[in-house]
Write a structure and sequence with these properties.
Blueprint lengths: L10 H18 L5 E6 L5 E6 L3 E3 L6 E3 L6 H12 L11 E7 L3 H10 L2 E6 L19 H10 E3 L1 E2 L14 E2 L9 E2 L1 H21 L21 H9 L16 H12 L7 E5 L5 E6 L10 H17 L5 H7 L7 E6 L6 H14 L11 E5 L6 H9 L3 H6 L5 E2 L7
Parallel strand pairs: 5-6, 6-7, 8-10, 13-14, 14-15
Antiparallel strand pairs: 1-2, 1-5, 3-4, 7-9, 11-12, 11-13
The protein binds zinc ion.
Amino acid sequence: MCNKKSIINNANEAASTVLFQAMIAANQGTFAVGGCIIENSSGRIIKAMHNNALKPLSTTNKIFTFDPTAHGERQLVSWYYANKTSLSLPEPKELTVVTTLDPCAMCAGTLLTAGFNVAVVAIDDLAGINYNKSFLFKDLPSNLQNLAKSKFGYYACGYKNQDLSIYVREYIGGTDVAFSNSIVSAENLMGCSSIFQASVNAVRNNSSDSGLKPSLLSNPANLPDDSLIKTLFRKVYPEAFKLSIPNNRLPNTDLYNLLVKVKNSVPDAKNAVAFLDPFGNVVLCFADTFGVSPVQTAFMNVTQSYAKIRYELMNDKEIYEKTAKTLTHPKYGTFVFLNAPNPADPATVMMLGAYGSTLEGPVPQIFPANLQYYNHPEEGTIEELSSLIMNFPPFYTQLAQLSIMQTATSPNK
Ligand SMILES: [Zn+2]
């Protein structure tokens, strides 16, 4: 194992490093995917991380959603921006994010927004951006396909006449990817692939986070103002549970005005997003925070905060039973955008992928359209946005069944 090394010399050592991270993720009970950032010029490992989407709860000992966007690669990009200045890190184009598994739409969009080189070991035929192994990136908008071809690399694997042909692959991808001229062993490819497949089955059997159906919930707005549930949400969004829309599926002009106000409160924000619970309570409403990083969009802020606060409450033995009865899975809520996102922007690929990860599975059929917007995109068209969604990998189109629709009360109808 090369997992303790701080300098690595070839693709196989890189694969061992990230496979070790995937093993830690498997032990935690989450999706077994690992990644690291390598400096191209030196082979130095700058940071290694693993998937943290799910974590065990101390209250129930069950696995529960911690942050649906906490995939290894997405976390590495956020870590990079949080530490870039203090650690004097090189620019993303001088670095390679190595990952055990082909990035999903969210992670691919995140990595393209930031401009990292990306090295991949195993293919993911459900959610991976190269799910069909064409290496053409037809699931990305046309303006990003050539960028992805130059930034992403799929390591050569295995040896002809020695390994099973399914574990033998030539390198395909960009020329600036670290160690693009060396070979990952068939064992490491097999390890990265099979540990992930096993973890998907384990998650399916052990995760407890399906959330109560809206008809079984009680309204959190009726809790006293000093309740821990309201307090934790108001720490990040002081107006939490103060505005209530009569029907959470029909966002109205009060919400539109709130979204405009929230967007305008952050100078360089292009968008704001609100999350409504099944009672129509505005639980969270945030703008883009590009001052933090170019990948910290309004939607990411909202979905990450909701999941993390819900996890914290579910992990508290004083309050978790009340939490389970008042806060449900976000698939039963409604995410409302002020502006539909620009279909040609890699951050839109990230955001739509993050929405799919937030759903974790099919949208409840009681109301499938829980991603809504008021204004058409400021750049690009809504037709281009719909076509982007329709071309996404099978997880998003067949399992989660992503869609986006305009609110019933939009000013630009
Ligand atoms: Zn991902």
